[in-house]
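Q: I'm writing a short explainer about Signal recognition particle receptor FtsY for a general audience and would like to include a description of its predicted shape. Could you first generate the structure from this sequence?
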Amino acid sequence: MSVFKRIFSKEKKQTLDKGLEKSKSSFFEKLGKAVAGKSKVDDDVLDNLEEVLVTSDVGVNTTLKIIERIEERVARDKYLGTEELNQILREEIAGLLSESNTGEDSEIALPEGSRPHVIMVVGVNGVGKTTTIGKLANQYKAKGYKVVLGAADTFRAAAIDQLQVWADRTDVPIVRQDMGSDPASVAFDTLQSAVNQQADVVIIDTAGRLHNKVNLMNELTKIKRVMQKVVPDAPQEVLLVLDGSTGQNAFEQAKQFTAATEVNALAVTKLDGTAKGGVVIGISDQFQIPVKYIGVGEGIEDLQVFNKHEFVDSFFN
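A: Of course. Here's the predicted structure. Afterward I'll give you a sentence or two in plain language.
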């Protein structure tokens, strides 16, 4: 029985367990080798554990924090057996995630405040940005919220068409212009349409280019400025989508985008097809920006609100 409060539905929990299966199997296989033939946690075990965590994409800085915490426990308790290592790791990683501003929720919901709530979605091409928007739109709509999408990634015709497919699939209105149109103009029209329709939530797609940070910063700043002519506090949320399967590359993307704009929420996608689930732990710790959603499957419901307790429970159970 989980030591954590059961707040996920059984189906969601099963999806999370399955989505983390590759990461979990890889991690515990490495951990088994790291402690083979050892009965107590000593310097050799800690050195091996450090390598296990780094190669599981937890990240160097976060790994060093975890090792330091375990070293403190070894010093305090004088003796720790290797059979206790799983539980110790579980506790220390849960503690680390608790210190970062990371999710307690299990269901999608909008914060209290003015409407519409505007979410600007950023991230490089190929990370699952448009799919994340579609799945979010579906889940907000299922909760009874009125949703409007804005196709402000006007640099790729495919991006506009892909968002249109999701709008059709989820039966929510979309505001779009031709390829090459000014992204800020699309965002402006989207917010005006949302206000006129008394929408609850607006989700704006943006171009996924990272070749020039200055251009990216200028473009995102312009989109924000223009949106604020319609909704003064827009966007209330800047959601950065990262592809979890890229491991350390996701850290680099997070660095670039957090330098270019004020990101205040993260979504980590494609965790089900990879053994790199540890990246969620490192990104959550390093950037002190809440991981709000994780993608653990292909299905429309498989974008889950990230709950740190359930994540750790699934990873170590």
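A: For your explainer, you could say: The longest helix spans residues 60-77.
Q: Perfect, that's easy to follow.
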